[in-house]
Amino acid sequence: MYTFIIGLLLLLSGFLFYSKYVEKQFSADFPKETPAYSMQDGVDYIPMPTWKVFLIQLLNIAGLGPIFGALQGALFGPVAFLWVIAGCVLGGAVHDYLSGMISLRHDGASLSEIHGMYLGKKVQSIMRVITVFFCIIVGVVFVTGPADLLAQLTPEHLDRNFWIAVIFIYYFLATILPIDVIIGKIYPIFGTCLLIMAAGVGGGIIFKSYHIPELSFSNLHPSNTPMWPMMFVTIACGAISGFHATQSPLMARCLKSEKYGRHAFYGAMIVEGVIALIWIAAGLAFYNGVPELGKVVLGKSGASGAVFEITKTLLGPVGSVLTILGVVACPITTGDTAFRSARLALGDIIHFPQDKIKNRLILAVPMFVISVFLTFVQFPILWRYMGWLTQAFAMVTLWACSVYLVKSNKNHWISTIPAIFMTAVCISYIMQAPEGFRINGLVSNVVGLLAAAITFGVFLYRTKRRDTQAVPAYDK
After folding, report:
1. Which of 65, 211, 269, 272 could form a cystine bridge with 96, CB 3.0-4.6 A?
2. Residue 292 backbone dihedrals phi, psi, to 5 degrees
3. Minimal CA–CA distance to 336: which of 457, 179, 129, 162?
4. Is residue 431 a part of any domain in this protein?
5. d(CA 358, CA 459)
6. What is the SS3 assignment for 158?
7. Does some domain include residue 456?
8. Rounded CA gap, 315 and 177, in Å?
9. What is the spatial distance between Cα 260 and Cα 17, in angstroms, rounded to a whole number?
10. Cα distance between residue 60 and residue 126, in whole Å
């Protein structure tokens, strides 16, 4: 219990104190006009209330990630608490804030364009392809999953294909219509439901006297999965996730002032960390430890079965409704913004304005034709790379943030240290993972550490050169 409570306090302290230091290093300029006003187009660039931006950002980055990922990460034992706390405050929230604010400084530029500005044209070319491809694949996956569940909950004639069609129609509308027409109206509702469910589960675990285990550094995973680097990829949402940076430009185009960036980006990530912490505690406490939790999460029921059982027991009928809503709505609210992000990224890449409906249709229609085709393609092996790819995005984005801070003559260590860490994690993981090169763990970890050290060395060499230019496209 003490570890859990202290963890919540540390996450809150991270927002109250460390976020202000990060904001100072970024040099947030409160009086400067944001793209929401300077580029207002009534479609993607629309000034929105901060509370609404916060809830949309939260749902954009969260979905079911801090629930399912947290329960799977809890199989490593209470040590998962430590990764969520430190990873979120020092890594994930810094990553989300800096990437979101750098996008804002560059008129809401998409992630791949930011990579190009600070890491070079070669990186930009690679990340353009990967970013668009990644967003489309995420969108497609979050069509079929909810469709399968809805088919089970509705009459037989409303089958999987019917719900795939319905979800695709919704995705298409959410992608091409102004952001305040659909996303701006329903996201705050679903975001509030996500918070209510987390608060209810956390309160139920505490006040119904469940035993939440204290911090331990032992690896308790039932499958003897090595903690390094597997836990740091398993728990992405809630600690650090590169997918977030693909979503941040959506809200960077809607912020009324740079002073609200700390709440919208850093704050949303802290709340996601709180949700992850709650679900780790719930999984370990409700099942009285890893062995029983493992039987459910690694069994036929999976993480979704654990979520249903925990919420039904702790919250009763209300919990069942919230769970069904969450398991269906949260993936959908990740998929729609993934497609919207893909459209924005394509528009940025080819410099194609998106203010006119005709232009948005030119990009969206081919993208959705391809996506519909992909729903009939089995790509389980490809999807297994997505967890690693998410963390690889975080690695690349953190290095871009570090270059930005160097060019701004600010303390780059706030992003450089997490960048080094994530480089070691990503390289070590892909070297030994079943979907990777399957090399011996010790060798893989050494290679990962060497890769992180070499990357850091290249970073120092490049940034110490005196031909470093000032931050572009921002008139101070």
Report:
1. 269
2. -70, -35
3. 179
4. no
5. 43
6. coil
7. no
8. 36
9. 15
10. 24
Which residue stretches of 255-300 are H helix? 261, 268-286, 290-297
d(CA 34, CA 45): 10
pLDDT tens digits for 339-352?
999 999 999 999 99
Looking at the whole model, is its pTM more than 0.90?
yes
ω into 188 cis (within 30 of 0): no
Q: What is the mean pLDDT of each run of 10 residues along the chain (476 residues)?
A: 95 98 94 95 97 94 89 97 98 98 96 95 95 91 84 87 94 96 92 90 93 95 95 95 94 96 98 97 97 94 89 87 80 92 96 96 96 78 79 97 95 98 97 92 97 97 67 46
Number of domains forming the structure of the chain: 1
- The Cα–Cα gap between 16 and 414 comes to 16
* Full domain range(s) for residue 84: 1-394
Return the closest-CA partner of residue 239 out of 401, 436, 73, 439: 73
Question: For residue 403, is it within any domain?
Answer: no
How is residue 344 written in tokens?
Answer: 């924005």
Residue 76 DSSP symbol: G
Residue 353: CB atoms within 10 A of its CB come to 10
Determine the Cα–Cα distance for residues 262 and 94; give it in Å rounded to an integer.
Answer: 10
pLDDT digits (tens, 9 = 90+) for 271-291: 999 999 999 999 999 999 999
Six-digit token string for 178 = 């102004």
Residue 59 near residue 195 (C-beta atoms within 8 A): no
CATH of residue 43: 1.20.1740.10
Closest CA to 294 of 144, 77, 139: 77
Distance CA 476, CA 474 (A): 6
C-alpha 332/C-alpha 172 separation (Å) is 12
Angle at the Cα of 146 from the Cα atoms of 142 and 150, rounded to 5 degrees = 160
Which residue's entry shows tokens 């990460």?
Answer: 73
Task: Evaluate whether 211 touches 288 at the Cβ level (below 8 Å).
Answer: yes
> In this structure, how many other beta carbons lie within 10 angstroms of the beta carbon of residue 5?
12
- The answer as to whether 400 is a domain residue is no
Q: Are 274 and 8 in contact (CB under 8 A)?
A: yes
